[in-house]
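I hope you will forgive my troubling you with a question about protein structure. Could you please explain, in whatever detail you think fit, how the structure tokens follow from the sequence? Thank you for your consideration; the sequence and its tokens are set out here.
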Amino acid sequence: MNWRLKWQYLYMSRIIRAKSSQLDDVSKSIIEELQHDGRKSYAEIGKAVGLSEAAVRQRVQKLTESGVMQVVAVTDPMQLGFYRQAMIGIRCGGDTREIADQIAELMAVDYVVLTAGSFDILVEVVCENDEDLITLLNEKIRTLPGVTSTETFVYLRLHKQFYNWGTR
């Protein structure tokens, strides 16, 4: 990435962060309504927050276009044939951002975060089975230049997963 693209990316990131930290109470209420039920109509949301259907539609469009929120379907991986989920702690040498970018492109990876502590990167993966997880670890992740070690935490059961923290 050349310096102009890096600058533009950093500039846009700051704008989005500034916008998200400056949400008014109505926008926060719209987000909360969608977190409760992502299928709720704009008319229903409008009644709950005191806006017209059109005004809610415009606000939702601005929130999604600016990157403040996404409206997505959350699935149960097990019901879709993905029986192995795990969190992988990765220790690295070199630029962790570059390694994280490479890992983020892997199909089985659904979450990548740079961390401080005993791991440099944490990665959540969703695989069909244990053999796919082993292949992912041995052939895709551990072979990346800069990856020095990994530790895998296999999920036995998902106990809690909520998405309602966004407007506190």
Q: What stands out?
A: The radius of gyration is 20 Å.
